[in-house]
């Protein structure tokens, strides 16, 4: 199972027009796509104005088929051309994450999501992936929130990440406080994570779902 994401950063100004365009693009994609596509925006995080379209797919052939349909749709291509007016000039990036732990609920996507990313240390791929799955399970045990873990299939080689979903900003805050207060979780990170992940590479971003 894979998580596909396309990220673009909006330029300052014309916010109302830009968000209207983003919602229209999402609606159009969902008319064509074989899988549901959600739209997210960063909040309280670096990269203000970053939008992310994401979808969960069972295999890459689904993405290939969807992309072929989109590229054959003139109205979708027209929307892409319109979007150039709102882009900050930063590259539009696609990423694929191979979900080792896919904790996906049947109730649909959450209202908020946090993504913690880091990079596997050299010679620690197997141990790092094993620990990553264990950390995801521990996060769910402590917070009660669904947590997935995956390995990047594109982008920086060896990148890994944890994706945790929350039904509200209050639940997100409570979950973070619970993890900070849990001694076993802290020990897990201090004693084992430092051995398999590169120091200075870990980042955390919070997203709010728009659609």
Word description of this protein:
With 211 residues, the chain is α+β, with helices and mostly antiparallel strands. The protein has 2 domains: 94 residues, Alpha-Beta Plaits, CATH 3.30.70.100; 114 residues, Alpha-Beta Plaits, CATH 3.30.70. 41% of the residues lie in helices and 28% in strands. It has 6 helices and 8 strands. It has an 8-stranded antiparallel barrel, surrounded by 4 helices. Strand 2 and strand 3 form a beta hairpin. The longest helix is centred in the middle third of the chain and has 19 residues. The model has no long low-confidence stretch (mean pLDDT 97).
CATH architecture type of the largest domain: 2-Layer Sandwich
Structural domain tally = 2
Low-pLDDT parts are none
User: Rough shape?
Assistant: globular
Give the ordered list of helices and strands. Answer: EHEEHHEEHEEHHE
What's the tally of helices?
6
Radius of gyration: 18 Å
Q: Structural class per helix/strand content?
A: alpha+beta
State the separation between the terminal residues, measured CA to CA.
22 Å
Share of residues in strands:
25-35%
**Strands in their spatial order, largest beta sheet:** 1-3-2-8-5-7-6-4
Q: How many strands, which pairing sense, and closed or not: the largest β-sheet? A: 8 strands, antiparallel, barrel
What do the pLDDT scores average to? 97
CATH classification, class level of the largest domain: Alpha Beta
How many beta strands in the DSSP annotation? 8
């Amino acid at each position: 199972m894979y998580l596909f994401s396309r990220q673009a950063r909006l330029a300052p100004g014309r916010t109302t027009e830009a968000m209207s365009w983003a919602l229209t693009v999402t609606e159009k994609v969902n008319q064509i796509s074989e899988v549901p596509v959600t739209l997210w925006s960063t909040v309280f995080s670096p990269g203000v104005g970053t939008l992310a379209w994401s979808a969960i797919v069972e295999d890459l052939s689904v993405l290939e088929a969807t992309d072929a349909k989109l590229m054959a749709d003139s109205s979708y291509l027209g929307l892409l051309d319109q979007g150039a007016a709102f882009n900050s000039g930063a590259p539009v990036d696609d990423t694929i994450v191979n979900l080792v732990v896919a904790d996906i609920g049947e109730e649909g996507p959450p209202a908020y999501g946090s993504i913690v990313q880091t990079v596997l240390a050299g010679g620690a791929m197997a141990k790092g992936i094993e620990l990553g799955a264990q950390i995801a399970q521990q996060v769910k045990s402590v917070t009660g929130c669904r947590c997935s873990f995956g390995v990047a299939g594109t982008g920086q080689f060896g990148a890994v990440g944890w994706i945790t979903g929350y039904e509200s900003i209050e639940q997100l805050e409570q979950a973070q406080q619970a993890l900070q207060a849990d001694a076993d979780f802290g020990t897990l990170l201090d004693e084992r994570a430092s051995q398999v992940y590169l120091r200075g590479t870990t980042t955390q971003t919070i997203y709010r779902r728009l659609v």
